[in-house]
Amino acid sequence: MARLVLIEKGLDFRRQEIDIMDTNEQFEPWYVTMNPRAVVPTLRIDDEIVTDTINIVNRAQTMTGPDLSDDDTVQNWLKDIMALHYGVLLYRNRLDADGTAPQIIARGQFLQQLAQDRPDLADTTKARLEGNRRFQDLLRNPDQVGQHLDATRGLVDRMIDAVSLQPYLAGEEYSLADSFATAALARLIIHELDEWWSDTPLEDYYQRMKSRPSFKLADVIDTGTERDL
Ligand SMILES: N[C@@H](CCC(=O)N[C@@H](CS)C(=O)NCC(=O)O)C(=O)O
Fold first, then answer.
1. What is the distance in A from the centroid of ligand 1 to the CA of 1?
2. Cα 54 from chain centre
3. Average pLDDT over residues 86-93
4. Within a domain: residue 138?
5. 165 C-alpha vs ligand 1 centroid, how far in Å?
6. Count of domains in the chain?
7. Which domain range does residue 193 map to?
8. How many Cβ atoms are within 10 Å of 1's Cβ, its own excluded?
9. Which pTM was predicted?
């Protein structure tokens, strides 16, 4: 989402990959100094550090380049698209028979070890361990998983309604909301949920978003399988 917006704005930026799965670079001291929650993405502009995707895209909006519309309607889309629980969409398909997700359990063990080894990260690991426990509980609860799935479908339905009336999600012009929707829909395609919008105007909308140069330049991925995530 952040990359799409920076590219749509025509901003020149240097991209640095942070391996959040295998080498866990997000917990390296140099990164946590910038992003105390140890999550991606982070935007650095000289000495200024911006964390959280919504803050990043709103900061990008203040810089030179086309003024992507960002009124209240747009901001509400950003919040709603960001509020979806993308982890549930992935890990609900990776559960053991008893409802536990081995990768999330392993993540919890990794965080526990990290908490022991890195007292300097106490605040980060405490918050992340709590999040990991909440996520484990959620995945064990099919009703809650279903609620997240319903919320996701509800948002897709709202997108369908919106683009049935207008060319872009929030109106007549491309906006930050379209960058968010593009990345979110790409992710849902990988989860094989795109049947939710087949034969609806959202299908054409997504193809239009995908044909924008930013899609390739930002390396948005909508092919492959969940294994690749
Ligand atoms: N609301 C935050 C969410 C950031 C976030 O949760 N990022 C995930 C990847 S999508 C992450 O970095 N996870 C690192 C980890 O699991 O240790 C934002 O938009 O920046």
1. 12
2. 10
3. 93
4. yes
5. 33
6. 1
7. 68-228
8. 23
9. 0.95
